[in-house]
Specification:
InterPro entries: Deoxyhypusine_synthase, Deoxyhypusine_synthase-like, Deoxyhypusine_synthase_sf, DHS-like_NAD/FAD-binding_dom. By secondary structure, the chain is α/β, with parallel strands linked by helices. The chain is built from 15 helices and eleven strands.
Length: 369
């Protein structure tokens, strides 16, 4: 069998090079080549109408502005259908939606002096302590509203939060919507795998001490995300089965929450055994430590998280997500026509009922057998 290969024929980089030419012709080896493969796989196969794209986001991406600059445009182009994020990414993205100011600085500042001055540092990003207090105040006021006073999953919670943030954006004149506001407008459900592990969750917990009736129910999230993966096969064109893609920025808990949808379907619910059709990850974690952030697509096959027949459609690039995400975004927006919005948030109940009915039917068949 011939070894897949392409001759490396280097030529000088021209002064007027564009992002597509740079990636296609100059990202020739090592992790630059893996980043090229991700860009090409996404543009040629994943970002098609029949593929449901789930995105997981970890790490401090939004303080650096990538929620507004990269993730929101991907949603508006229809390239991301549902998201699992750390609560911290959603919290810090709110600063931009509320018109607050963050600054690029140095990672070598004196943190004792910063504390004395009331300045917060996230590596080389700094902002005033009042940014946190103002964001906390906004969250606490909003979630006391009547629509929040019930049991709900994080997708509904974030959709409501995004609705209110969008109104504030209009009032303060924010030109480019933040992550939650864009997801609200595009009907993209956003889940958080650990709802208590962020300042948003901390404020929710604080209000529970004074009688708030809002309860975040993780079981709703587990079933809703499994339902999205389950119904992805129905999203294809007439006579063609739809596909599911997992695009992972970083790793951590959001990565597992995205990938566990498939074991939830076959291992726990006893439904189809399939796995995601596409697996793309940008990570700086090593696989040999046994941590999930570094777990490879081939390892995920053993869990049923990735379809073994689709291993050629999996790529892992070992690099900093803050380098890869803007490059990937620029490439696919240049190369791909916008897709129609699936508005999966609006279809949550429909997909949930489909999963519930098929699960109950499988239980009946199993009991009679």
């Amino acid at each position: 069998m011939a070894i897949p290969s392409k001759k490396i024929a280097p030529v000088p980089i021209p002064s007027d090079i564009g992002v597509v030419d740079l990636i296609d012709n100059y990202f020739t080896a090592y992790n630059s080549a893996r980043l090229r493969e991700i860009c090409q796989l996404l543009s040629r196969e994943v970002l098609q109408e029949g593929v449901t794209v789930g995105l997981s986001v970890s790490g401090a991406m939004t303080p650096a502005g990538f929620g507004v600059s990269a993730l929101a445009p991907l949603m508006r182009h229809g390239f991301v259908d549902w998201i699992i994020s750390t609560g911290a990414n959603l919290y810090h993205d709110l600063h931009y939606g509320l018109g607050m100011k963050l600054y690029s600085s140095s990672p070598f500042l004196d943190d004792v002096k910063l504390r004395e001055q009331g300045t917060i540092r996230i590596y080389d990003i700094i902002f005033d302590y009042d940014v946190l207090l103002g964001t906390d105040d906004f969250i606490r006021k909003i979630i006391q509203a009547e629509p929040f006073q019930k049991r709900m999953g994080t997708a509904e919670f974030h959709n409501l939060l995004g609705k209110y943030v969008r109104e504030v954006e209009k009032q303060v004149g924010v030109e480019h919507s933040c992550l939650l506001a864009t997801a609200y407008e595009c009907g993209v459900p956003i889940y958080t795998s650990s709802p208590g592990d962020s300042s948003i969750g901390m404020n929710v917990a604080a209000l529970s001490l004074s009688g708030s009736n809002m309860i975040i129910d993780p079981a709703i999230d587990v079933n809703e995300t499994a339902a999205i993966a389950y119904c992805a096969r129905e999203s294809g064109d007439a006579g063609v089965e739809g596909k599911s893609a997992a695009v992972i920025i970083g790793g951590g808990s959001p990565k597992n929450f995205l990938l566990q949808t498939q074991p939830q379907l076959h291992e726990v619910l006893g439904l189809e055994e399939r796995g995601h059709d596409y697996f793309v990850q940008v990570t700086d974690a090593r696989p040999d430590t046994g941590g999930l952030s570094g777990a490879t697509p081939s390892e995920a096959v053993s869990w049923g998280k990735v379809d073994p027949e689709e291993l050629p459609s999996t790529v892992v690039c070992y690099t900093d997500s803050t380098i890869a995400l803007p490059i990937i975004t620029a490439y696919v927006i240049n190369q791909c026509k916008p897709r129609s919005l699936k508005r999966l948030y609006d279809r949550r109940e429909e997909m949930y009922r489909k999963l519930q009915q098929d699960y109950q039917q499988a239980q009946l068949v199993g009991a009679s057998g």
